[in-house]
Amino acid sequence: MNFLDKTTIELIAGNGGDGIISWRREAHHANGGPWGGDGGDGGNIVIIGDHNEDDLFKLKNIKEIRAQDGQKGGTKLCHGANGEDYIIKVPLGTVIYDYFTGDIICDIIESNQEFVICYGGKGGHGNAHFKSSYNKAPNLFEKGEKGQKRKVILEMKYIADVGIIGYPNAGKSTLINTISNTKAKTANYQFTTLNPILGTIKDKNNKSIVFADIPGLIEGASDGVGLGFDFLKHIERCHILIHLISCNEEDNINIIHAYNNINNELKKYDESILNKKIFIALSKSEFDIDDSKYNELKNYLKDQKIYRISSFENKLDNLINDVIDQYYKLLKEKEKLSNDDSNAYKIIKEEKEQQDIIEYTKLDNNKWNVTSKKIEYWSNRIPLTTDENIVRFNQKIELDKIQEELIKRGAQIGDTLIIGEDIEYEIN
Asked: What value, to the nearest 5°, has the Cα angle with vertex 134 and ends 128 and 135?
């Protein structure tokens, strides 16, 4: 079975198209005028939640995704075409992290939820844009902005309403087959299920409730033993858990020990998981002929209700009905909370614009290098191919202030100022 729940991709939004310089040249317009159009905007990269997607396998061999660039502006005031957005459909429950910082960028938990993860660059202006009452023939134009780039990790954490947990071979796959339309392969040996399996059931109102067969946990899973972390992360999103414990002595010699081991692994991984509503069910009850396993666990857990089920015999002891009732209670509580903050899920962390920092570096032979994000931005936007563009660039980067600061730092008149990588001035 092809399955992927984590992948790393470089995302690059489209660059904006360049504006152009063009002049009107027609018989009936002797004075002409600026006629250069603006470039089109670059395409965004958009993440969309899709309930039809099961995992991230479609992205397995994709190392880089690029959205379409905007097209160059044209003559006769023609605007360049915008680049098409690149849509990435992901399963519900996909969390996207910044590769370098590990910060959460967005968390996709609802169908059709959209998040623009990389914005395309704005198109550059043509010379017609710069026409004014004091400059009727501007020899100005801009290049398009660069599209945003991001290296991200996409990790799928299953969103299921109910998670079925327990030791390997506790009967999880058989239970999910019994209650849903899923037909998981089952057999009488451990580690049958290596990937979480989702099953859907319809309640009496014909509404769907998703159950997740979480792969079997083992002692040490919270420390990464086996595939511990990979299994445990799928439990985080479930609203309700069903803890299955097999009555078959071939699966569990000590039923109390089996119960405590799973609880300890959950607690060590994330103690808050134990705050979820957890239903305890003895599976394979056809093996507990004398009720000894049931009584042993009941005496240990005292007031907690224990369900006795046999998925093989289709005897579920009202377990599923009680789970559904609890699920709808939680939905009502969630609805109250969502009224207070209905958009909390959409963006986990908003990026804040960083303050521009100018770096001054003295080089050999009376040369100085000056860099900053602002300088880099306008170096990419304004081509220094016309006198008017050069003047505009100097204004945007505040060249006079830069030269004043350099002189304070010991620069001399006549020294060479290098802006960015290759733009040179003589300090005056």
From this structure: 35
